[in-house]
Each structure stands twice: as structure tokens, then as C-alpha cells.
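Deviation from plan, reported transparently: iron/sulfur cluster complex.
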Amino acid sequence: MPKPRYLTKSRFTLANECPTKLFYTGKKEYANTKNEDDFLQALAESGIVVGELAKCYYPDGHDVKPLDYEAALSETNKLLEHDNVVIFEAAIKYQNLFCRVDVLVKEGDQFHLIEVKAKSVDGSKANPFQGRKGNVLAAWKPYVLDVAFQRHVLNSAFPEHSVRASLMLVDKSQACTVNGLLTNFKIQKEDGRTQCIRINDEPFCQKLLTIKAVDEAIDQVCTEDYDGKTFEENIQWLSEQYAKDVKIQPSIGKHCKACEFRCKGDANHQKKDGFRECWTEVLGWKDQDFERPTIFDLYNFRNQEAYIDQRDILLDEIDAAAFNAQDDGAPGRSASQMQEIRYTYLRDGRKEAFVDHEGLANVMRDWKYPLNMIDFETAMPAVPLHQGMRPYQNLAFQFSHHTLHEDGQVVHEAEYLHDEPGSFPSFDFLRKLKESLEKNDGTIFRYADHENTIICHIIEQLDAFGAEEPDYEVLRRFACAISQPGKNTPNPWETGERDMIDLRQLVARHYFHPMMKGSQSIKYVLPAVLNDSKFLQAKYSGESYGYDVQPGSSKNFTRQTWIQYVGGTVVDPYQLLPDVLDEVDKERWNELWGDEIRAGGAAMAAYLRLQQPDLPEEYRQKVIKGLLKYCELDTLAMVMIVEAWRNYNMC
Ligand code: SF4
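Because the crystal trials were delayed, the predicted structure below was used instead.
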């Protein structure tokens, strides 16, 4: 029997992003980039643990486990025969609408519907969803709509009951009362479904989650206009379109840029492309039009919505005057000048880089050798690992440090990875970083704001609970010396005398390569400089990098060839990271983790995985190796970018 096509709460949420997505969702023939991230995302956010933690607050609750709609409905209805009952994942159906309520509390003829979210809130605020003008804040709207849908289904299914609705959220104002809370839970994939289970009865923190009534906010969103329909009519209409599998006419806009139903890379090339279908339908584009650069290929291009509305989408159809390029008087090119350069290079199909030789030469004159490149990996678990920590506080668990000397020598100076389950990493991290950076007095570089933000957080943590550290003063002084306070940093200090230079800012004002398209991420800049720089191509071809061939250059690679070509293009080095599956049983590895470490945010997920005390040793070692190689490549990438620039200036 075919599965019923219910409008569920997740499909309703998807339709709120874009109603056309209802047509593509769940169809195997369409590419869907979100499917690939599910398990990793769950690990990285540790949000899935919040759902399981919420159940601890209701020790008498009954879990409705079946995934099958009918079985779940029948089990729920049986439980609802009780006058008073708490049900987790209660299955509720009304006509073609279906939802699973995270926590449903029934007391006689009253229901309390509770939706659990890993989003943080300041628990001391009575109505955190409301803005100054009495409106529902945009950041909360998707959550409010989600509960509004559930309340509508529950009200419709049980009209004789009263329903009140709440969100159960992570209270960022509360400190965790127990140690190692996250390690009481295990995340696993079973039958293709990511789930979290509580693995012991250790005491849990009663303060981390807070319940906020959301009825007022729901009433407000329910009175809004939904394309000429009321909230209830809109739900009805969406459910009918979904039941009949009708594609709702696409309305294209800037939201399409991040559409998950778009083929990206080789993995999806066999699949149908929802994005392409929508844009063909609306714009009448032919295959070759999808090869032409668009405003989506520009970095941080404002007014995208207006340009799309006017159908000014293809760069070769937009006038250069639109960019209104103006000098801002600061070194390098202004944001509008760089935008015009990107536009011109992409429009004209140029293959080479734009390099502001003069500007870079001026900047480089102030640098002091050896140049220090550092990169941090950090985690922000929703559920704290440590007693006294608040949710979503930063944990700095890994760094890599490369130096580039004036004579061109590259040294992998140091690396640090805190892999001990349950202990707080950040002060030890700072200690080791200090030890490594104080070996010289050269300029320090970071890529983007992250490293500075983390140092600011560690200073806050030192002040909050680090005063007992024997080297508190020394650590604090060092941290202030290499950083600058952010806008909201408490107890701000004077910008440090060895404040880190942001390499990304230099890219933003002095460098562009068409391969970077709309990004300045190091993951895009590295392949671009490698494809552009003859110097890098000569230096890193062959087995030229590693501790076997250049003692000191690396801690994790023996003989690495970074320059490898496919179809005349240098392959992205991140794709060359050795397959971590090689040395252990592939099936076992996949079952536990997958080979995702080389994907950006996965480092945090890997760290949270290392916190699980029952992790098999061979698996632990594999994760550690993967993390070390990944972080080393991040600082080597920074070295390579600067090497490429130094070489341009020598030409
Ligand atoms: S391409 Fe745009 S209109 Fe089509 S489904 Fe994606 S977001 Fe919606």
C-alpha cells in the first residue's frame, strides 16, 4: 500500500521556506543536499541530545516508538484513554494533517503541547519571542509557526479539549549542575534514522531547559495574511497540493541560492535538479544559461531580491554602473571596487587571478618574520560537557601552528588536540598556544574572525572560573596581547601589541580568483591560489611535503603531493586528505562515524564523538588522526596563500 501523503510538521516548515519544495521533498530522484548532512548535523549541533534530555524532566512519560503512522497513532490513542498521561512523540492526525508532538501532557480535558528545541533563550525573559513593537521576532517565527501547526492539528483532532502550547528551550542563563552531562547520551544511526539514547541513570541538570508559553505568539502569526488565505486555509491548501502531488508554482528569489534540491558536485550528478526545473519554468532558461555567471556568484551581493524581481540575474546582462565602485581611502580596494572586479572577471570569463600587487607589497612591509599561521577548532555544545559551563559556551580543543620564514622555509611548529573525555580543554589549549607562539616574535595570522572570538571567550572564561589557575595572570596577559576585544566583550582591553592579522580581510581587499566565486572561505581560496600560482605548482608538486622529505615541515604527513591535476585543474587539497577508512574495517567505521572529518564543521562533531567514553580505541585513534591532518592543512593553506602573494611580488 502506498504511504499516505500527510502534511507533517516538517513538511509544513519546509513549505514555509518555499511551498514548491513540497513537490521535491522525499523523492529519491531529486538531489537533496540536506539528506547528506543529517547525521553529521545532529552530532555537530548536539541538539538531538536536548530532545532526549527533555524526556528526563518527565520521568513518567511514555515513548511512542513506532515510525509507522498507523502504529504510532494507535499507540498514542491507547495512551490517551488515560485521564492523566505524558506522551513523548505523540502521534496526532486530523484529515490529511499529521504531527508528532515532542511532549504531550494530558490532564483531564486539557492538553499541554510542548515542542522541544535546541535553540537557546535567556530564561529570565518572560516573552522572548516578542519584539519591541509587539511583533513576533523574525528569528523565532519558524519555531512559532511549527508549534502553531501542531496546535491546529491537536485542536482539530480533539475539539472538546483545551490546548495550550509551549516551547521547551535551552536556557543560556543557567550553568550546568553536573559534570559530563553530554556523555550520558549516545547518538547513533539505526535503520537509517539518527537517534539519541540515554545510556545511564546519572543525575542530570534540572536547570538547563526552560518552558516558555507560546500561545500569544501563535495567535499573532495566525492572524497574518498567507497570500490571500488565513493560516488555517493555507494549511488546508498546502495539504491538498501535497496529497495530490501537485507542484506549487515556483516563486524564485534569493532564497533559491541555498535551495537543497540543487545538484552540487559529482555525488548528485545522476539526480534531477529541482533548482534547474524551477528556474527553467520561471525564466525559460536553456541548459547553456545555467553555465553563465549570475549574481549568486558574487560575494555578499546586496539587493539580490530586487535584481531577481527585475530579472537582472545574469552578470553579462547587468551594467557595470550598478556596482557604483568607489574608493574608501583605506589600503587595498574598497568593497564596491572589489565587487566590480569580481563582476568583470566573471562576466568576461577570465581564468586568472586579480592581485593587488602594490597594495599587498605595502602591507607585507610591516610584517615581521617568521610569520605565524594559526587555526583553531572549537565546539559549542548545546548540552555542556562540564559542570559550571553554560549551554553553547565555546570549547577550544585543537590548534595547528605553522611558521613561514623569510627564506621560504615552512615549519609545522606545533599542534594541540585535547581528546580526554569529560575535561575542560580551553585553558590547557591557551597554555600550549602561548608556549608555541612565544618561541618567536613574528607576526601572527588568523583566517577570519573565529580565532579572535575564541580568544575573547577564553579570557571571559578565565575571568569567570579560571582565577584559581596558577598561571591565570600570565595566560590572560598573553591572550590580550594577541587579540582585540569584540563589540560586546566585557572588560575590554587595548588591542594587543601582537594582535593577529586577519588574512581573510587581506583577501577581501587585495585578491580575487574566479574559482572563488561567491566565497572568501579558505576552502575556496586555497584551490584558487594553487591553480593560479606557478610558484606553488613548482614547490608542491611531487612528494615534496612531509616529515620524511622536509624534516619539520609537517607532523602528520610523510610524503604528500599537494599538486595533482584532474582535467588540467589542480585538485582541491582538502579532497586529497587520505581516506581515513583505509586502515580499519570500512563497515565498522561507517557504522560509527563515516568519513566526514574532512568536511568543515565536522571537526566539532568529531570532538563530541571523542567525548564518548565507550568509543573503541581504534576508532578513537582514527578520529584523532583525521582531525590532526585536517587542522594541519588549514594552517598550511594560510602559508600557501602568503607564499603565492610573496611570489607575485617578486615577479
Ligand atoms: S529553486 Fe527556489 S523556487 Fe524552486 S524549490 Fe528551490 S527555493 Fe523553491
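Residues 18, 20-21, 250, 252, 255-256, 259, 261, 274-275, 278 surround iron/sulfur cluster (CB under 6 Å). We consider this an acceptable substitute for the interim report.
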